[in-house]
Amino acid sequence: IHDVDVVIDLIGGEFAVRAVSLTKQDGIVVGVPSGQQQGLDEAATQAGVRWTNVIVEPDHVALEYVAELIENGELHVPAPATAPLEDVVEVHRQMDEGHLPKTVLTM
């Protein structure tokens, strides 16, 4: 895999730096585990790749509220559809036409 537009790094550390080689020039690496991207700035700059962090903080009040909605049957989250990565063009076409729910591409 190479020349992708966006890499979302959920692991951090050396994996964030390794993600740069998968990303096309002017693409972006998004690091979710903030503070875990040692060396990413230098690697990204050298490769012409952008990068940023996403800060995720737990919110127990909101999570308890969502859990209550689920328990009461007021919130239903359908499982996403899955499709092989090779079918990405067809998946987007069908989603644009409203024929598919959110879809996870598998590799």
> Helices and strands: which structural class?
alpha/beta
Helix content: 25-40%
Instruction: Give the helices and strands as they follow along the chain.
Output: EHEHEHEHE
Q: What composes the largest sheet?
A: 3 strands, parallel
Radius of gyration: 18 Å
Low-confidence stretches: none
Form type: flat
Regarding quaternary structure, what we see is: single chain
- Please give the count of helices: 4
Proportion in β-strands: 25-35%
E-strand count: 5
Main-sheet strand order equals 1-2-3
End-to-end distance: 10 Å
Q: What is the mean pLDDT?
A: 88
Written description of the protein model:
- A three-stranded parallel sheet has the order 1-2-3. Strands 4-5 form a two-stranded parallel sheet.
- The chain is α/β, with parallel strands linked by helices.
- The protein is flat, with a radius of gyration of 18 Å.
- It starts with a strand and ends with a strand.
- The protein contains four helices and five strands.
- The relative contact order is 0.13.
- Helices cover 34% and strands 25% of the residues.
- The longest helix has 12 residues, at 60-71.
